Amino acid sequence: MNDATAQALPQVEKPGIAGWLFNPFAYIAGGPSLILGLAVILASGVIGSLSNSHFDGVLDFHTGTPMPLWFFIMEGFVDWIALSVLLFCAGKIISKSKFRAIDLFGTQAMARWPAIFSALLALLPSFQNFSRYLLWRATQHGSPVTVQPLDGAIFTMAICAMLLALGWMVWLMYQSFGVSCNARGWKAVTAFIVSLLVAELISKVVIVVLA
Amino acid sequence: MKKLPTECPSCHSRLDVSRLVCNACHTHIEGAFQLPVLASLRPEDQEFIIQFVLNDGSLKEMAKLSGVSYPTVRNLLDDLIGRLKALQSKKESSK
Fold first, then answer.
1. Would A41 disulfide with which of A56, A76, A124, B40, CB 3.0-4.6 Å?
2. A94 has a pLDDT exceeding 90
3. Range of lowest pLDDT (A163-167, B13-17, B54-58, B68-72)
């Protein structure tokens, strides 16, 4: 941080690891965040396609149906646009500040980066084997699937890690909304929750229609 | 330098200036002078305004130099505008 100008902004803490992990948007927004965010959506779609893992909703992550690569990437874009558009409208309603669309759309795309962890975890052979086993148990369809003793434990740990990644992603999405629209307090929390739920519904419907 | 108090520690009303002194000839002037609105702002807000003017009023430049994002600087400015408006209306109502 430049000394002269840093003195002008004593309210802003210098970026530490916690800052970069939980509120990176205090330090990066606009064009750079949009470029990074688009790369994140692309990467999570490509990695997800390797294990047939779908981000089939703003908050959803399921393994299952094989689809062409473009479909996995499109799911990420639908999730991103659905939530960003709704948060943009919510920001226009509750915020008194003039904010830029590129900050909100860019940081929302970047906020999706914990999804890469979920996509990577789904590549674990034990995770895939146990998923197939659970599917076979539920449907009793096809030849029986056998599991190794450690598969269940690894599957459970992976699910816990994915839930943590989901929580982290939602936190980043809220931080993105707060920083980009200068939204704070109960109005911001309410607007975010409503937008998230509506975006989840819209993204699910759009993805089902496009499937 | 000591921080300029702008609020009464007892009743939290706005403080006025009642005495000025020339450090060169030690002339004392007494009267009732109101603090300018800018002087009533917090020191960090005053510094923000100085840097804002020195950077040609460019929030982008301030964000670039300080290593923070544009919306972060924009939000600081919006908060400062809010405090300035509150101070101005307080001043108007106390007239």
1. A76
2. yes
3. B13-17
Mean pLDDT (whole number) for A12-19: 78
CATH number at residue B72: 1.10.10
Helices within chain B (DSSP H only): 43-54, 59-66, 70-94
| Residue A11 forms part of a structural domain | no
Q: How far is A14 from chain B (nearest CA, A)?
A: 9
Summarize pLDDT for A183-209 with one digit per residue, the tens: 999 999 999 999 999 999 999 999 999
In a domain, A22, yes or no: no
Residues pairing with B19 in the sheet:
B30
Task: Give chain B positions within 8 Å (CB) of A11.
Answer: 44, 76
Cβ contact A16:A31 at 8 Å: no
Residue B5 pLDDT exceeds 90: no
Chain A neighbors of B47, CB-CB under 8 A: 7-8, 10
CA–CA dist A66, B18 (Å, integer): 80
Structural domain count of chain A = 1
Number of domains in chain B: 1
Rounded CA-CA distance A182/A116 in Å is 28
Determine, yes or no, domain membership for B21. no
For residue A25, give how far its alpha carbon lies from the nearest alpha carbon of chain B (Å).
7
A21: in domain: no
- Cross-chain residue pair A5–B66, CB shorter than 8 Å: yes
Q: Does the residue A104 lie in any domain?
A: yes
- Facing B70 at nearest CB: one of A9, A15, A103: A103
| C-alpha–C-alpha distance, residues B70 and A28, integer Å | 8
Q: Which among B62, B70, B78 is the nearest to A5, CB-wise?
A: B62
Query: What pTM value is reported for the model?
Result: 0.86
Domain, as residue range, for A117: 27-210
